[in-house]
Amino acid sequence: MERIKRRLEDGLIPLLAPAPRVVLLGLPPLGDLGGQLRAEGIESLLAAHRLGVARRVAAGGFGRAAAARLPPDAAILWLGGATPGAVEAEGFAALADRPPRPLVFMHDPAAAVCPSPPGLAQRLAEHGWRPVLAQTDRAGPSAAAFPSGVRMRLLPDPAHALWGLLDQHPRGGAAACALDVPPDGSAAKALCWPALLPGSRRHALRLAHEALRRAPGGLPAWASAPLGIARGRALEAARRRLVAHDEIETGSLGASLFAALLGRPFRPAGPEAGAIARYWRRWLALPAPVAPAAPWSAVPSAGPAPRDSAAAA
Description:
- This protein is of the alpha/beta class.
- The chain has a domain at 2-161: Rossmann fold (3-Layer(aba) Sandwich).
- Helix content is 35%, strand content 15%.
- The chain has nine helices and eleven strands.
- It has helices spanning 2-16, 33-48, 64-68, 86-95, 117-125, 199-214, 225-242, 253-261, 273-284; strands at residues 21-27, 52-58, 74-78, 103-107, 132-135, 151-154, 177-179, 189-191, 219-220, 248-250, 266-268.
- Strands 6-5-4-3-1-2-9 form a seven-stranded mixed β-sheet, sandwiched between helices.
- The longest helix is centred in the C-terminal third of the chain and has 18 residues, at 225-242.
């Protein structure tokens, strides 16, 4: 896990660091667990490198008005919180007339989106920008498929930036649970984000996301504190509930990332099991410069996860 985190850090920060601050676009909706971990991971990574966030814009909210409010010296990072629609297309079209600056699309090549990030990147490249498509899997188009001026980078999910920042506890002895697994996909105790949260945490997170969604042009830095606090407290509440279980069946990549970050063995289940296993096979295969010592045993396979192994990542 430490190696994957370093790969993320070494690959993403140089793409943004020429700018003194960053704008976060496409912040995920409330019900996306993987998106919440991605946003929290990006925030912690930027803070560690002293890159401030000038503005945060919800998925579906980046239109011409939001584009006009972007600071001219800020790099742009699109988190891919939802399918880009006509609003996003207008916002990125408006950027074409502004001075180029670092622009990174965190792009899921398996997602069917329209207009697609490659399409948006191509239009900006035609106006002198050099956008980067950051993919977590090589299942998408290769770099040769993009026009001149559009670069492709293979990077792990930004949630890996949270490795070492979430408290881990000895296994609680409770039976396995299933996180974000379809109802018929597991016999384990079913938990679902955000329904697993206490009512107060869920309510606070909903209010913060509603404020972000309603803000014309997104939230400036000074108005974003409630969103970060609500998201952090919600993830902490979910952590406390999950660490009571010895093993977690995961129905989404976000659920598997959460389990791994908490040091719990996990087992992919449901329709997304193949994609989850493929992701972990790729990133766990990174070469180890030193003997690993990460205290977790997540095994991304279709079979049962061993309870006493010490597989390192």
